[in-house]
Design a protein that fits this description.
This protein is an alpha/beta fold and about 240 residues long. Helix content is about 35%, strand content about 15%. It has helices at about 20-25, 80-95, 100-110, 120-135, 155-165, 180-185, 215-230; strands at about 5-10, 30, 45-50, 55-60, 140, 170-175, 190-195, 235. Helix 3 crosses helix 7. About 35% of the residues are buried.
Amino acid sequence: MQHNCRVAIMQPYFLPYLGYWQIMNYVDTFVVYDDIQFTKKGWIHRNRYLNNGKDRFFTLPLKKDSDYLDVRDREISTNWPRDKQKLYNKIKGAYATAPFFNEGMTVFNRCIQCESQNLFTFLLHSIHVIKSVLDITSNIVTSSNIGSTKHLKGQSRVIEICRKVGADEYLNPIGGKELYNREAFEADGIALIFHEVGEVSYKQLNSAYVRNLSIIDTIMFNGINGTKALLPAFRLL
């Protein structure tokens, strides 16, 4: 089927799960929100890794600030040089016996080596590192660079961003199925499609498979080439 412009719009997550990269790999333009309010509950500054067969969080320490600031206005803690080493050691200890440990640690280390302590700049750096490692060729655009849409909320904002970048297909994770209305998108000539990770599972040492961990987990157990091979393992609904 011919298409002109497939688009996804996502928050800037810290080393997100495989599905995030599957979506990025499928679309032509991948818009990353920088002008949205930071929330502690999501995946912006944290993710999950495997430690002794159980999922645990790893977290970016943030400077204390107003809860109402946008992601682009938040900063990483001034203790980051010390905390960065702690985070590195935590991942190193958890995955020491993983089959692609060296590959995984090299990628992880590149992701956390960012001169800026601005949260969004740091996250965008790590997103570009993984994109490059996985040979993803889609174009990354920052939401504020395509004109302000902050006055809009939810579906209206998504449709407006799609308009601005000339989308004819909009891809969203399956979790947003209840939030969006196909007819509203179609009225603007945009096909709304949902993404769901396929039946992906891989051996994680001796534990039962824990799904949707950070992409670092996927690389540790599959290597870069094995992770690239999982990029097409999804369903469109």
